[in-house]
Amino acid sequence: MAAIEMRGVVKRFGRITAVDGLDLEVPEGICLGLLGPNGAGKSTTMRLLTGQAVADEGEIRVLGHELPAQAKAARALMGVVPQLDNLDADVTVEDNLAVFARLYRVPDVRSAVERGLELARLQDRRRDAVDDLSGGMRRRLLLARGLVHRPPLVLLDEPTVGLDPQIRTELWSLIDSLRGEGVTILMSTHYIEEAERLADEVAVMAHGKVIARGTPADLIARHAGRETAEVYAPPAQLAEVRARAEAEGLSVRPAGPAIAIMGAERAPNGAVPEHAVRRAASLEDVFVLLTGEEAE
Amino acid sequence: MSEREIGARRLEPAAIAGVMSREVANFLTFWKAVTFSSVLEPIIYLLAFGLGLGATLVDRVGGLSYVEFVGTGMVATAVIFSSALPAMFGTFVKERFQRTYDAILAAPVDVEELVTAEMLWIGIRAGVYGCFPLLVTMLFGLDPAPGMLLVPLFCFVMALGWASFGIAVAASVQKIDHFNYVTTLVITPLFLVAGTFFPIDGLPEGLQVAAQFNPLHHLVELVRHSAFGFEATDLLRVGALAVFAAVMWRIAVRRMERRLID
Q1: How many CB atoms lie within 10 A of CB A15?
Q2: Sequence-ordered list of residues with C-beta below 8 angstroms from that of B161, at least 6 positions apart, any chain
Q3: β partners of residue A157
C-alpha cells in the first residue's frame, strides 16, 4: 500500500490554480523530495494532505484514509514539520512537547516528552522558554514536536529554509536517521542539495503538477545526460554558443553569468567551445532545465 | 486511542483537553499580569464611581447603595472584557501572526474542537475573574449571600457567548485595526446600556426594549439578584445567556472553518 496517493488533484484559489491535476504516489518507507520553485504548489500539496485545504477535484488517500472525510484519523498517523516556526515562544521546551503529545493522544506523555527532548538534544534546556533558544535549537524542537507520537509518515515542509549551513547539516542528520527507521517522508524543498542528500526519489513540481520523477541519478541521466559544460564569455558570444548548441539538439540553460550545455558528452565537434568547464551533470541542471527557475 | 477511534465522533474530549492544555501552559506565563488588573480595575472603578460619584451626586439606586449597585453591575463588565477582547485579539494573533492554529490543525483536532476548547477555556477564566468585582465590593461593604455562589456559573455561560463572539469577529476581519469598529459599535454601547452604572428604567422606552436583547443586561440583573434575592424571571435570563452562547458558538465554528480551511 502506498502511504500517500493523490490522483487528479486540483486546488484553486479564486482564479489561481495552485495544484493542477496532481498525481503523486509515495510508497511506504521512502523519502520523496518534492522539489520545485516558489509557487509550484508544494505547500498547498502539504496542506491538502493534512486536510487544511480541501481539493476541488481528485482523490487523496493517506495511509488508507480518504481525505478530507477521514483527515483527522490520517493526521493521527502523520507528523508535520511546518516551514514557519509556530512553537509557543513563552512556554517551556518540555511543555511545548507535552501539549502536542496530548493533542496526538500519546498515552504516556512523560515518556514522549523525554524522547522528544533527546531527539532535539535539549534535555538540559527543558525548562527554558522557547524564546531563549537559538534558531537551530528551535528547528530541532519543531522537528521533535512533529515526531512526538512516533508517526509512520512525516511531512516536512521546507524543513531547513532560511537556516545557516551548519544547522542545516544538523537537521539533515536528524532526517536521515528517520529514513533509517523506515519512516515514510514527504519533504518539500527548493534546495537542490537537500533533495540530493536526503531523497530516495525526487518529484519535480512546477505549476501545480509533477513534471518529472525518479531517483536523482535517473533524473540526471534522463534529462541532463552525463556531462554539463559551463561556458563563461561575454553575452554576445554566449548567445552564439547557445544557438549553435541548440541547433545540435542540446539543452542549454542559464547558469548565473554563464550558460550550461547539458549532455555535453554527446556534443559534436564545435558545439561546445574548447574553453568550456566540463563537470558531471547534476540535479540542479535538471531542475533549472525543467522549471526554468534558478536553483538555490 | 487508535487512529480508527480518532475522528470517529465529533467533539472528542481528548482533542478539546489537548487544546486547553496549550492554553493553560501559555496562561501560566502571564497569569500574574491578568490577575493584577482584574483585582485593581474594580477597585479603581469603585473608588471613582462608587465613592466619588456615589458620595457626591448619587445616594441610592433602586434601594441599593451606589457602591453595591456599581459593584454588582461591574461583574458583567469584567466578563465581557475578559472574554470578548482576549478572544478577538488572541484568536487573530494565533491565527495570523503565531500560526498556532496551523500547528494544532496538523494534529488530530478539527476546527469545531479547536473553537470549543478556546471558548471553554476563556469561559472558565472569565467565570473566575468575573467574580473579582464582587469580592472587591465586599471589601467596600457588600454583604455576602448564598446566591452569589451561582455567579461563577452565570459568568461562565455569559463568557462562552462573548468568547465565541470574539472568535467569530477575529475570523471575519482582515486587519487587527478593524477591531476598533467592533469595540466602538458593539462592545462599548452594550456595556454602557447594561445597567451597570445607571438603571435602564431611566432610559427612553426604545432603549429599554433594546436592553432586553443585550445579554450583558441579563447578567447584570442575575448578579444583583444573586446578592439581593432571585426573581422568577431569572430562569429566563439564564436561558437567554445559554441561547446567546449556543448561537455564537455555532457562528464562531462556521467563521473559523471558513478562515482556517482553504
Answers
A1: 5
A2: B215, B241, B244, B245, B247, B248, B249
A3: A188
Among B18, B26, B102, the residue with its CB nearest the CB of A88 is B26
- Probe site for chain A from B4, B105, B109, B260 (most A CB atoms < 10 A): B105
Rounded to whole angstroms, the Cα distance separating A262 from A283 reads 11
For cell 498547498, the residue is A44
Question: In this structure, which amino acid lies at residue A81?
Answer: V
Please report the ipTM that was assigned to this predicted complex: 0.89
A198: cell is 536526503
Q: Please answer whether residues A28 and A2 qualify as being in contact, where contact means their C-beta atoms are separated by less than 8 angstroms.
A: yes
B29 touches chain A (CB under 8 A): yes
Shortest CA distance from B1: residue in chain A: A105
Tell me the pLDDT of chain A (296 aa) as tens digits.
799 999 999 999 999 999 999 999 999 999 999 998 888 999 999 999 999 999 999 999 999 999 999 999 999 999 999 988 999 999 999 999 999 999 999 999 999 999 999 999 999 999 999 999 998 899 999 999 999 999 999 999 988 887 888 888 888 988 889 988 989 999 998 888 888 889 999 999 999 999 999 999 999 999 888 999 999 989 888 998 999 988 888 888 888 888 999 888 888 877 888 888 999 998 988 888 888 766 55
Cβ neighbours of A78 in B, within 8 Å: 106
A10 touches chain B (CB under 8 A): no
